[in-house]
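User: Hey, quick favor. My workstation is busy. Could you predict this chain's structure for me?
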Amino acid sequence: MKYAIIGCGRISPNHFAAAKANKLQLTAICDVVPERMDEKLDMFALKDAGVCTYTDYKTLLAEQKPTLVAICTENGKHASIALDCIKAGCNVIIEKPIALSLADADAIIAAAKEYNVKVCACHQNRFNKSIQKIREAMEAGRFGRLFHGTAHIRWNRGVDYYKQAPWRGTYEQDGGALMNQCIHNIDLLRWMMGDEVSEVVAFTDNLNHEYIDAEDLGIALVRFQNGAYGIIEGTTNIYPQNLEETLYLFGEKGTVKAGGKSVNVIEEWRFADGLDDPETVKQTYHENPPTVYGFGHTPLYADVINAIETDRQPYVDAYAGRRALELVLAVYKAASEGKTVHLPLDNTSTMDFKADTFNSRK
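Assistant: No problem, here it is.
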């Protein structure tokens, strides 16, 4: 299967590694900075592998005609590149977020149907061993009635991180902590708690990163249509380094906590049915990834390849990417307006909040 990567920045090594693990035929890569491509080819010993390099992705699409493309550029370009890939007949894996506006997310979904290709939103933490075990319990009804769940993302990002890529923290190309760092766990919370959200109340602020436009702290209360509640706490202000990413789920018959660097460890496992030993579960479903990106890209790629070959939807499809995006935008909207926001949202974009300064709320 001919495969290409567009964007060779910070997250791209996970895609190179996942493609290699799944024996994809890497035919081409693209980046506007040639040095980045050289660096990744060296990193993965691909200098003599015949991989073509491009600074214009449209030329890559026309000349190489890949079956599968990974889009790893700055967030604000995900949608436009994805639409060009889809119209060229390519299946796509889009790094999170799938887009920065609901209109763009809807356009991706519509184009995928029209051109009969598969679109995967790269929320790779759904493939964590811990998360898969929790999902299995959820689908089996072991929690009983869900009461509430919480997503905590307590990380650190400093000035050096933002200097590496000036698009970070801008409404035009990114969003803030919730959209960039926290969207993976926000995706998991929505997915686990029934997916359908009825309303959101929230606060966002920029307390420690005056050199970016968007938030470095977001706190939200979510009400789901099934009557359960969710709490989101996301920040990049933790001193002096990343502390934790945790997901709690509380039901009438079960309590679970996933923690670790990227919710890759089960720290609490309590169910009334007594079907399994908690300590055994904790030991069995435990991973220790070197970074917060975890190990999920490789199984996500395996799933997408199988989805293409068997003509089914990927496990994490474009609709999943849209739902995660919608919830982040709902938090932005609720915080900006200072009132409850009801879902589903009409067309909303990060750019709707560009003129909204945090000082004006104080």
